[in-house]
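User: Please predict structures.

Assistant: First:
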Amino acid sequence: MTMDQSAVKEIKESQTTAELAAVIDRAKLSTPAMAAPVDFQMINLEKYLQGRTRYRGEMETASLEDFEKYCMDFGNENSKCFVDPESMTAKTIFNLGTTQEPGHADFTAKLRLIKTAEFKALLQLNGDRCTQKSMAEFMEDYAENIICYSADGEAIPTSKAIAAVRRLTIESSRKEDHAVDDFKSSRSALENIEARSEEVLPAGFKFECTPYNGLEARSFDLRLSILTGGEAPRLTARIKRLEAIQEAMGRELQMHLSSMLVQSQMKTYIGGFAA
């Protein structure tokens, strides 16, 4: 009596399934698994249990305080926190484990700080070519945050600085020099355009605000320039040493988290981690 190919295949699958089941049973896996005769794939049965076999997932928040509380609740010496100063984010991996006993690295918490309204407005202003009206309105809207100063470094009342921006006078003068010799002639022209105001024009201003909730307030120094090449004057304000300030804010976040999470024996690092 001969058997067809399908019967032989089923017998082989049955034998192999029994052998795999014995191997899995001896391994004593923490997550239940079984070998099914479907191309002999491993099937995770966790979804059929009443609960998970271990705690995992990602918590995400914009609150520095809540991020710290969550890390304190679940962190330990095998947890690590990574801070990205450029994006002002932080990520804690609670079950990273060690090099000898690595974890699954799938139980995490992520912090993404949100810029305050004042800091957003300041970054939008930075480098923008504003009309007199828009610059004056910005200074009026954030008068409480602004301290204006002259070219000599003396403080100027904000109200007078705004009046100076609103009443600009553009003065233009042109000077030409002509020289004629026996074998050559030359001509040069110099045009001088100057912006003036009845009030003292500010050379710049300091903008004080809290850039991110949970961090310290900072003073941003801006240089104010007047562009006179077009039909109407334009004003531009640029933040001095902005990249250095952003690096300092990233270090502040890292030091803040490091001092708070040291109680749970968790270490913090500047950088990122991909499992």
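Second:
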Amino acid sequence: MTTNPDALVRADQRLAQRLVEYRTRAPAAATTAFSPAQMQERSTISPLGIGQPLVDAFRELRTRLLAAAGNEGNITVLVAPVSRGSGGSFVARNLAAAFAFDESTHAVLIDCDLFHASQDSTLRIDPTNGGLVNYLEDPAALVGDMLYDTGIPRLQLLPAGTASEGNAEYLSSFRMRLLLEVLHGRAPPRHVFLDSPPVRGAPDARILADLADVVVLVAGYGRDNPEQIARAAAGFDPAKFAGVVFNEGPWERP
């Protein structure tokens, strides 16, 4: 039997990183929940709003995604907008929040739109310890140091960090796959939501789809035409593709 040396090295790296994360894991600090008004300022639904149409729409989407994934374990969900400004970040943030409403569930939102990051500013978080780019660049970095509370209990943000031209291929790196393993393996395990760059114009969304269990496409209602939506959807594995969310706006960054 032939052994692949590269595979052995990667296995060692994976084990070493998970051991480091485990040994340095600190108990999660209690999150102070924001009021509904504070969450509205952050364009994020609040668990106190259950019963309102928008909140219940995201809760229904949560139920459908869990069913699509087979309701087994914690999942990685890719949320990809058709085009810039369709509202993908809004949907990703609020879908992650809806999952975190369940007291038995934890969630992490990762801002993967490296060159147009918005989650930290929208949630009014100062990423003093860095974010995704810093984790991917530094083999000694610990993801636990870069997870920030959002104001919703059990929901944390891993912001994008500071991107440069050399960061473009990070999303397809071995360390990106390792990151998801670490997040799913942390105590307690958690669902992971990837806020993707738009499908149109770059391959990043399709690269991230390889890491996801479920893919959600976001179309701006009246903004993305049927041909653009169909072309974007066709680029994803049908076995992972959960469907299209039509965002009525107001849309985020054009």
